[in-house]
Backbone:
């Protein structure tokens, strides 16, 4: 039951933070994706960097269990699936987690997103054997790999560099990028619909 | 309206850290499959069955990885499923605490309205279609924005970078084409 308690606490915290950073607001998502206001991307980069430094730093100090890491397999379908998710993310303004939070916060369009999502997941369940047979789910680059080799993780590294130090360096890089990026990446001349 | 990006980013990072410190990295999209499985298994109880070793399913996807998903379908009161339910609770409370979503935004978000007008049906159709593509893609990829992009890149997982590249390569052009007017 401890794990259910943790699920409630961490899940609720995650839902609340997604709401507060604006990630469950499709307007804020598409201002990020059309590059007119990328503050949310800066938050996400800062979050990844913060999480990385705390996790790998904690591992080095022996405070964080390396066994809690869970690295997913790399395969060509990861990229194809990423493309699909990206397109749908822009069209709807939601991804799986933020869609769920948006619906709970009172956005009706998010209920349609969830309905579509349940159908899309079911469609994948039906078509999974074809993807499996296509070879696009076969691992590439070693499968479950990290950039460096994380001591004690059981995962292989793309390089023999110490994975925890690489993780901290990458974390610092993400934070540096978050601070370096401007709020807006493209020009202001978007009042009227450009001629097609 | 949203938090300052620095405070928001640190809070979000702390949640991802707390998850991996106490349990495991955050992920969401699998639970759409689990909910589908729960509904389908209620309609057709032979979908998921117990075996000597654990659980299996007549659906190859639910049966993969030694019936990991089949097991979750049979036991919905597990960490990952409750986590997503709790996200809804947290999102609801947070939104209420700041006064709720503005009425004008509840069916049609402001930026959508500026580009596509006031037709709620059009917006709902786009959200439905988007949801279908998002979850189909997330399942093909084996994770979504939470599991692959954030948890993955946080762990320096190669799969996380591949996923993020795919997601933004598609999302940015689609958004640039669709949302030319600002709001």
Residues:
């Amino acid at each position: 039951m401890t794990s259910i308690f943790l699920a409630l606490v961490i899940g609720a915290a995650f839902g609340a933070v997604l709401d507060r950073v604006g990630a469950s607001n499709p307007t804020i998502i598409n201002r990020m994706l059309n590059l007119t206001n990328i503050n949310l991307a800066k938050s996400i980069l800062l979050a990844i960097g913060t999480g990385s430094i705390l996790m790998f730093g904690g591992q080095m100090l022996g405070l964080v269990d390396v066994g809690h890491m869970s690295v997913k397999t790399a395969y060509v379908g990861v990229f194809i699936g990423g493309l699909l998710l990206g397109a749908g993310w822009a069209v709807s303004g939601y991804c799986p987690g933020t869609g769920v939070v948006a619906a709970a916060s009172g956005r009706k369009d998010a209920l349609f997103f969830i309905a579509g999502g349940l159908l899309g997941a079911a469609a994948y369940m039906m078509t999974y054997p074809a993807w499996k047979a296509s070879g696009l789910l076969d691992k590439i680059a070693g499968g479950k790999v990290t950039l460096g080799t994380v001591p004690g993780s059981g995962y292989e590294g793309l390089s023999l560099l110490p994975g925890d130090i690489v993780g901290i360096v990458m974390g610092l890089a993400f934070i540096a990028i978050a601070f370096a990026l401007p709020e807006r990446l493209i020009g202001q001349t978007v009042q009227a619909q450009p001629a097609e | 309206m949203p938090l300052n990006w620095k405070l928001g980013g640190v809070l979000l990072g702390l949640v991802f850290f707390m998850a991996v410190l106490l349990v495991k990295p955050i992920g969401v999209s699998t639970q759409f499959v689990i909910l589908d499985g729960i509904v389908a298994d209620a309609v057709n109880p032979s979908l998921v069955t117990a075996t000597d070793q654990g659980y299996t399913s007549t659906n190859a996807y639910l049966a993969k990885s030694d019936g990991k998903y089949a097991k979750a379908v049979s036991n919905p009161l597990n960490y990952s499923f409750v986590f997503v339910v709790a996200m809804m609770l947290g999102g609801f409370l947070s939104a209420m605490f700041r006064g709720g979503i503005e009425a004008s935004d509840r069916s049609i978000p402001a930026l959508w309205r500026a580009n596509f007008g006031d037709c709620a049906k059009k917006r709902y159709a786009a959200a439905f279609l988007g949801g279908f593509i998002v979850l189909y893609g997330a399942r093909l990829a084996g994770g979504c924005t939470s599991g692959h992009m954030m948890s993955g890149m946080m762990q320096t997982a190669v799969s996380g970078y591949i996923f993020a590249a795919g997601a933004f390569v598609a999302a940015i052009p689609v958004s640039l084409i669709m949302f030319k007017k600002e709001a």
About this structure: The helical segments of chain B are 5-22, 30-43, 60-74, 79-97, 110-116, 120-141, 145-154, 158-178. Residues 102-183 of chain B form one domain.
